[in-house]
Fold each of these.
Amino acid sequence: MIRVLVADDHPVVRQGLCAMLEAEADLEVVADVADGAAAVAATLELRPDVVLMDVQMPVQDGIDALREIMNRCPGSRVVMLTTFGHENYVVPSFRAGAAGYLLKDVSRAELTQVIRRVAAGESLLDRPEAGTEAATVSQRELEVLSCMAREMTNREIAQRLFLSEHTVKTHVSHILSKLGASDRAGAVLRAWRRGLLPRDLELEPPANQTDGG
C-alpha cells in the first residue's frame, strides 16, 4: 500500500481527494489536514510515502511547509497540488524539494499515476540536460519565458523588454506551442524541466492572491 497524507484547507476538496484516493486498491490515506503546520506535524509523526500538499493554506503555506518537511524529514516525497495557474509558484516548489506539481483540474488517472511514480522514487521535477527543445526556443522567447516565471503580465513583459503587448502575446503563443503546454504555468514547468530556465532565476514574491487553493 502507498500511504498518502492529504493537506488542503478546503474541506470539500480535501474530502473529495481522500475519497478519490481511497477508491484505489493500492492507495491509503493515512491522514488529512487543513493547514501547512498540521501537514508538517503529521508527516513527522506518520511518515507517509507521499504528501499531497496544497500551495496556499492558513497558518503555514504549502511551500513553507514543504521546506520544513524537507529540512526535518529529508527524503520525503511531496507533490504540490493547487488551483493556481500562476507561474511564480512552480520554481519555488522545485527549489524547496517537491517531487511533483499538479493543478487541481488534473484527472483522477493522472493524479494517481503521479502518486505512484513519486512513491516509486521518481521526481517529476528533475531537470534533464537540454535537448532539441532548447534549440527551438529563440533568445527573445527565453527572455519572455524568464519574465513569465516571475509571474509578469503581458503588459509588464512588454515594458520590461521594450516590446508591444501584441508582440509579447505572439511570443507567449509560440512558447506554449513549442513546449506543448496549455497554459503559462505549464510552459514554465516544462521550460524548467528542460533546462531552459536558470536555477538561480530571481523571482519576485507572488502577488497577494486569495483563491484559497
Amino acid sequence: MKKVLVIVVLTMAVIFSSVLIAAPIINDSIAKKTANELLDLPLPNSTEFIESIYKSGKLVGNGNGMQYFGAILIKSELSLYELKEYYLEFAYSEWKFIVENQINTDIRTIEHAKLTFKTDIDGSNYYIVYSWGNNNTIFHEFDIRGH
C-alpha cells in the first residue's frame, strides 16, 4: 500500500511540475501567435514592415491575470487616420489591430514590463499596430508571470 501511495504522489508531482514548466512556453506561443496574426495581414500601400514583438504576462491593469500582447512596427507614408481605417477592416473585436504613433522604442501600452523595439525610431511616420490575444486553456492559471 505504501508503494502505491509513493507512486501516486510521485506521478502527481511529475504532472504538476510538467504543467508549471509548460505553462510559460504555451503562454509565450499564444503571444507569438497574436503577433503572427498581425504579420499575416497585408500591409497597406506606401507602408513598410520594420519588426514584430510579443510578450505574455501581467502587462496592464491591476490584479492577477495572464495577458498576451503582439505588435508590429511599421513605417508609412499614410496618416494615422488612414492606417486606423485600413486596419479597422480586419478587426473583429475592439482589442485587435490597434494603431498608434510610435515616437520612440518604448512600447507605452505595456505598464508592468519593459518592452521595446530594437529599431531606432527617427521621424513621425512610425506606427505600432498591436493586438491583445486570449487563451482558453488552463495554462494561464499556472504561469507565475500572471500573478
Amino acid sequence: MNRTFTMTRRVAFNETDMAGVMHFSNFLRWLEDAEHAFFRSLGLSIESESDGRRISWPRVSVNCDFSGSARFQDELEIRLAVVRVGRKSVSFQGDFVLNGRTVAVGRSTSVCCVVLPDRFESIEIPAEVRRKLEAST
C-alpha cells in the first residue's frame, strides 16, 4: 500500500448492534471520515471552490471486506492510502486495524465534480488538488 494517513477511533455504543459488535455500515462511515480528515491534512476540503465553481467528490464505488469484528469501546486505527489518482477520480483504501490485526478493508472511488443547481458534472481534478493527492501516493 502507498503512504498512509492514520487516524484512530473508538467504537461508540450507538455504532454497535444488539450483540455489542460494530455494525458493518459504520466501517464505511469511518472510511468517509478518514477521507475527509485526509483532505483536511492536505489543506483541502471535500467541498471547496475552484475557479468560482463549487467542487465536491461524490462516491461512485465503495466496498468493504471483513476478516474480523470490533466491539463497543475497541479503538481502531484507520490507515488510509490513495491507491489511484485518475483524470477525474481518486481511489482510496482504508485498513481497519484492531490490536495490530486488520479486521476490515474498505475501498472507495470518488469523482471530482462541479455542483450545479440540478446535478453534478464531472470535471478534471484541479491541478493544485492533483499535485497534493499525487504527492500522497
Amino acid sequence: MPEIGSTLQEARMRARIDISEVEATTKIRAKYLRAIENEEWDMLPGPTFVKSFLRTYADYLGIDGRLLVEEYKQRHEPLPDQAELQAIGPPREHRLRPPRPPRVPRGWLIGASVVGLLIVLIVLGSIGNDNGSTPVATQPRHKARPRPQPKPAPVVPTSAVLGLTPTSDVYVCLRNASDQLIVNETLTPGNGTRTFKSRRFKLTVGNSSLTMTLNGKRFSVQPSPTATTFAITPGGRRLLTNDNAC
C-alpha cells in the first residue's frame, strides 16, 4: 500500500484543494495537516489524535479513513506482548465441607411431637377446669399496618444535553449519535460554555482542563498522561480505550 501521507497529499492535489481550505473545514491546524502528509508523526499531539486527524482528513477528501487508520496502527503502533495476553487465574481452593450432624430417626421426631402436643392439651385442660370456663381465643387488638407503596421508578431522559466549559487550552473532538463531527478544535477559556444535544456522544479531550455538565449534573475530567475518551448517554458517561477515540 502507498505511504499514508502521499496518499492524502495526492488526493488533495488532484482535487486542487489548498491546505488552508482543509484547515477551515476540518478545524485541524495546517501545521498538523502538513505533518500528516510528510508523515512527521512526532509533530502531532499523540497516537490518539493522529488516528482522529487521519480519519477526519480522509473523510474530507473522500477516502476511506478506516483503511488509513488501520495502516497507521500496523506500521507505527507496537504489538502487545503475547505473554501479557495470557490470563493467569488463581489456583482453585478446595474447601472442606463441615461434617454433617448425625440424623435423628424420623420415628423419634414424630413420637416426640405427639408427646409434646399431649402435654400442651393436658395443661390447657387443667387451666380451663380451674377457672370453671373454657379458654376462648381472643381477637388481636392491633390492626395490621398497610404495606408501604413502592416508589415509582425515576424517569430516564431520552436525550443527552452536554455542556463543555474549558478552564484552560484543551483540544476537544466530539461526535454525535449520527457519527457526525461537531467539534474538532482547541477550546480556550473566556468564551463560556458550549452546549450540545443528541441521543449519545463520543468525546475525546487532550487534557483535564475541562468541566462538563450532562443533563444538569456536573462532571470533571481526571488528569491523564494521554488523551481521554468518553461514551456519553442520557444515563451517564463511561471511559473508552484510546482505540475508540473520535
